[in-house]
């Protein structure tokens, strides 16, 4: 993504107009390799794009160095594949109960991720969803989850998974 200084100034001065735009459509029209640059840019100038999305597109924040915490509001119902993959600074994630689908590798390789509050509406934890999240030491799985797919917590050494009030240690 390349924006010149004038374009950045126009976006900053017209932030309220920009916020009313169709972000779902915008992110679906650009390539996956461009998504993180735009998402990081909007985040850096104070635009909470989560308020304007109904689903988080695949790879939207992949490799972001900006994100520290994510709170997904009620309008977000889906998290795409690898949406937050490789977000090394991401420390916590909170999902509203309207999130029903999470893509594989959605939070994989988030090396600083410590805390996750899952939606009470998801039915399964997908493949490699939290793989290699080395700082993730515990997670509470809601009763709505009926399956944890292959490798969902690979590389999360010593994590404690609390599911249906039972404690399951993964070594």
Descriptive tags:
alpha/beta, three-stranded parallel β-sheet, 4 helices
Topology:
Elements: H1 5-13, H2 15-19, H3 23-29, H4 32-44, E1 55-56, E2 69-72, E3 78-79, E4 92-95, E5 101-102, E6 115-117, E7 124-125, E8 138-141, E9 147-148, E10 160-163, E11 166-169
Parallel strand pairs: 1-3, 2-4, 3-5, 4-6, 7-9, 8-10
Antiparallel strand pairs: 10-11
Describe this structure in words.
By secondary structure, the chain is an alpha/beta fold. The chain has 4 helices and 11 strands. The strands form 4 sheets. Strands 1-3-5 form a 3-stranded parallel β-sheet, with no helix packed on it. Strands 2-4-6 form a 3-stranded parallel β-sheet, with no helix packed on it. A 3-stranded mixed β-sheet has the order 8-10-11, with no helix packed on it. Strand 10 and strand 11 form a beta hairpin. The chain is globular, with a radius of gyration of 17 Å.
Q: What's this, in brief?
A:
The model is unreliable at 15-21 (pLDDT under 50). The protein has helices spanning 5-13, 15-19, 23-29, 32-44, and strands spanning 55-56, 69-72, 78-79, 92-95, 101-102, 115-117, 124-125, 138-141, 147-148, 160-163, 166-169. By secondary structure, it is of the alpha/beta class.
The H-and-E topology, N to C, reads as HHHHEEEEEEEEEEE
Output mean pLDDT.
82
The total strand number stands at: 11
The class by helix and strand makeup works out as: alpha/beta
């Amino acid at each position: 993504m390349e924006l010149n200084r004038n374009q950045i100034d126009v976006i900053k001065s017209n932030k309220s107009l920009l916020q009313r735009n169709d972000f779902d459509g915008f992110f679906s029209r650009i390539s996956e390799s461009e998504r993180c640059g735009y998402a990081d840019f909007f985040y850096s100038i104070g635009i909470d794009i989560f308020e304007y999305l109904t689903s988080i597109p695949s790879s939207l924040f992949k490799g972001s160095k900006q994100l520290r915490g994510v709170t997904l509001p009620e309008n977000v119902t889906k998290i795409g594949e690898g949406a937050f993959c490789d977000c090394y600074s991401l420390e916590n994630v909170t999902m509203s109960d309207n999130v029903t689908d999470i893509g594989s590798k959605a939070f994989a390789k988030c090396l600083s991720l410590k805390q996750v509050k899952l939606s009470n509406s998801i039915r399964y934890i997908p493949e490699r969803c939290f793989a290699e999240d080395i700082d993730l030491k515990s997670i509470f799985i809601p009763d709505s989850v009926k399956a944890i797919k292959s490798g969902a917590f690979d590389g999360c050494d010593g994590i404690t998974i609390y599911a249906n009030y039972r404690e399951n240690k993964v070594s």
